[in-house]
Amino acid sequence: MIIAAADGSALGNPGPAGWAWYVDDTCWASGGWPHGTNNMGELMAVLDLLQQTAHLDEELRVYCDSQYVINTITKWMAGWKRRGWRKGDGKPVMNIELVKALDAAMQGRDVDFVWVKGHAGHELNEAADRLANTAAVAYRDGREPDPGPGIPDSSIAHPAARVGQTEPEPDLFSSEELEAAALTDEEHVVAMERSLLSDEVRSDRAAVAALLHPDWQEVGRSGRLWTREEQLDVIGPIGPVDVEVISVDRVGADAILLLWRTSTAERSTLRSTLWVRSGGQWQARFHQGTDET
User: Fold this and answer.
1) What is the pLDDT of residue 15?
2) pLDDT of the residue at 259
3) Per residue, what are the HEC states of the chain?
4) Which positions are annotated as active-site residues?
């Protein structure tokens, strides 16, 4: 059995992005893009691993810290495909080219996907995370990352074997992600707040973690004070939520206060989130929700 870990990284999310999979020090691969998202990296890491092992008869086990990736492949992808690559709410599937490629790569394959908690000391996951982050840093610094040795005798051309070839990397951005790159800071913050309410992001601990400041806190509806780690341990899919943006106010050069309302069949809740920018990346620093009477 081939046992590997796959991981993705994005500095800014979106920003310089990397992906990597790792079996051992003699068998790994990495790559990325100058501009991409964490989820793109997570998907591409698994895709490259599937493609490079396609010629082997051995069983494959893949450790991922992204529930988004595992759910995409094992739960959601078949339904998206039946609906013409649209989600249950009718919206187009994000990262569609990567998802379609994963669908093709999984044909005839029996792969065991195992979720592991990120940054928790899992040896293979930690190695894949370091390689993915190194690739993202390389693109941030204007360098090509080390593609790694890959799988021996792979029938899929790995970047390391493309000596003298000049064809560009495929464009893997969805139209929604391309539009996001041109958003104002205020629009970007609203888009990120909405993404925190999407089941796709909430199923991916790493994606949520990238959007929360290390010192993030929340005063919940019950009055409880939540820390970042406590929230990451319990966050998960919540289903459709109606969101009404009330105001978006810049309270500093690198701080935006967002006031918004969520509505469900049971209640209406006023919410405020303070977003701060550090190192070029916007992250949620504080959140509070109060039920309306």
Assistant:
1) 83
2) 95
3) CEEEEEEEEECCCCEEEEEEEEEECCEEEEEEEEEECHHHHHHHHHHHHHHHCCCCCCCEEEEECCHHHHHHHHHHHHHHHHCCCECCCCCECCCHHHHHHHHHHHCCCCEEEEECCCCCCCHHHHHHHHHHHHHHHHHHCCCCCCCCCCCCCCCCCCHHHCCCCCCCCCCCCCHHHHHHCCCCHHHHHHHHHHHCCCHHHHCCHHHHHHHEEEEEEEECCCCCEEEHHHHHHHCCCCCCCEEEEEEEEEEECCEEEEEEEEECCCCEEEEEEEEEEECCEEEEEEEEEEECC
4) 7-8, 42, 65, 119, 129
Sign of torsion over alpha carbons 212, 75, 237, 61: negative
Contact 99, 88 (CB under 8 A): no
Angle at which helices 123-140 and 38-52 cross, to 10°: 120
228: tokens are 């970042």
Distance CA 287, CA 272 (A): 6
Q: Residue 163: what pLDDT?
A: 29
What domains are there in the chain, each with its CATH number? 2-174 (3.30.420.10), 183-291 (3.10.450.50)
Report pLDDT for 280.
Answer: 67
pLDDT along the chain (293 residues), means of 10: 95 86 96 88 95 92 94 93 85 87 93 91 94 92 90 62 32 42 74 82 80 90 88 83 89 93 83 86 90 80
The pTM assigned to this predicted structure is 0.62
